[in-house]
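All the exercises in this workshop are built on plain-text protein records. A record pairs a protein's sequence with a compact description of its fold. Backbone structure tokens are a discrete shorthand for how the chain folds in space. Once this layout is familiar, the rest of the handout is easier to follow. As an example, a complete record with its sequence and its structure tokens follows.
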Amino acid sequence: MVNFSKKKILSIFAVSILLVVFTMCFAPWGIVYIGTLLLEEPAKPEIVREEFSFTLIYDSNGERKMIKDT
């Protein structure tokens, strides 16, 4: 039978607790980081600015007002 001292058993227990904490806390962020490194850069859009016309019609104090932009 193997004779383990209390100090050795406590050390093994502490290391295993630290490994579990590391795995639960830091490993998911590492996986996300590696995933972003493997992704390719998205292409730049061809249209970066576009104008559009709109019409706004509203009532104010019983008077109908219209704002039109082209």
